[in-house]
Amino acid sequence: MTASPAIVILGPSALATARRIQALYPQAVIHGLSGRVEADQAYDDFGDTLRSLYRSDTPIIALCAAGIVIRSLAPLLANKGAEPPVLAVAEDGSAVVPLLGGLGGVNRMAREIAAALQVSAAITTSGELRFGTCLLDPPSGYVLADIEQGKRFVSDLLGGESLRIEGDAPWLEQSKLPLAENAGRTLHITTEQRVAQADELLIHPRTLLALVGSADDLAARIGRAFEQAGLAQQCLAALLAPQALMTDKQLAQAAADLGVPLRFIGADEALPPQLQHGENLQLLQAASPDAAQTIGCPRGRLSVIGLGPGAAEHMTPAVRRALDEAQDLLGYETYVKMAEPLRDDQVRHSSDNREELQRARHAFELAASGRRVVVISSGDPGVFAMAAAVLEALEESAAPAEWHAVELEVLPGVSAALATAAKAGAPLGHDFCLISLSDNLKPWAVIENRLDHAGAADLAMAFYNPISKARPWQLGRALDIVRTHRTPDTVVVLGRDIGRPAEALRVLSLGELTAEMVDMRTLVIIGSSQTRRFPRGDGGKWVYTPRSYPQP
């Protein structure tokens, strides 16, 4: 399974089972029918949604009757060798039925889901039922040379032929294949490039590595090297390169085009035996597919992400993908919990919210070792959050050179000001500014000066960190400054825990606002002189700042 699965439900009765399956695949998105169930993502038409997911090669877990799934996808069922896994699961979790994607691991998924739900998977594939394994879907690290030849081969075995295995196939040790020394069929586990004979099946182990010195014409050079050596290019497990090339974008793109990982080696690193040398590359032979995966170190990645205000639907897909791919997650404990669901194998490094620079340095240390690391902020990481701390740590004169080789990315999120403004309407619809009232990292005199100038400029203002037990008086002083530039009827919006279960929105006037109405979890928006409010149909108030401004 290469893509994150989609769990598709029709109503609230399936949601509990969907969440149990999502715990097995934390990266999965639950799609719920709009207006009937609150899920991670809403859809309007079941058939259109399934067909769109199928076309994008997304594994589908549909919690509904198998018939509706079959009828929805029937027009697209043309190529059995190119389809994602599709499963039907009973709403109550009592049945798991693999429908499509036998060559894409659907039976493996069915067994995983059935085990999690404590039921039996309804496996109907003849070869797998008879032999306890699927020769057409070898495990990771092995590639079937020819699917059509494989189908004929399995058909022969079902018809009574026996086989012998030449080569190392550890996953078949517990199978019920009809093995015999004088068998009429042979399964070859081989790196050799050739056309299979009528009585044999070729499976290629990914045990070969290409040690390269540049990206120039790399795909063609590798192709020639494999051809000259008589080796199957499907056996290529990874590209290896010197650590000095870790930031080479062309090399990274070449590896992506070849569909293999790119890893880097130190000058003294032990390497497996060499098979072929030429054109500024070497072909190396690892002892097994597992051994091939241990050679070299990948380029580490550090993603600085913003979760948004808290609700899953406000998290961007790029952020969810970074969380799913992460090996290590660092952040304030509250924010790490907000990032769930997470896998058991992901390492959580929770720390106090005042340890930003230490957290950033720790993240670089982990990423420099080749790990995929995520630093978590709420809202947007670039708005009073961790992105600045990460860059500050990287710019420090003491920062090791290895940190600069890390693949660093900052992924945006929905900031608290934008989330609160959206709940109220559009109070930030014209020019505005964001000001943190915390004087932990800047002098209070600077904050007062900025408040005075923002008020004089008639900007709408959003206050972050407005008040705390350690800073009980600053909001009152800030409001005194604002009131020298605003009338008492200026519109104010208070958003507390917006996007979280206890969210609360309040619209009032500047004259009514007191510091006691606000705590550290409240976002305060002070409108400009042009900000307006008017009644909503549900009894609340809409707030907006017009896009135009009066001419002088």
% residues in beta strands: 15-25%
Please give the radius of gyration in angstroms: 29 Å
In order across it, which strands form the biggest sheet? 3-2-1-4-5-6
**CATH class term of the largest domain:** Alpha Beta
Name the CATH homologous superfamily of the largest domain. Answer: Tetrapyrrole methylase, C-terminal domain
The global form is globular
* Helix/strand/pairing category: alpha/beta
Q: What do we call the CATH topology of the largest domain?
A: Methyltransferase, Cobalt-precorrin-4 Transmethylase, Domain 2
Number of strands: 29
The CATH architecture of the largest domain comes to 2-Layer Sandwich
Largest sheet: 6 strands, mixed
Q: What ranges have pLDDT less than 50 throughout 5 or more consecutive residues? A: none
Helical run tally: 17
Number of domains: 5
Span between termini:
63 Å
Q: Estimate the mean pLDDT confidence.
A: 93
Helix content: 25-40%
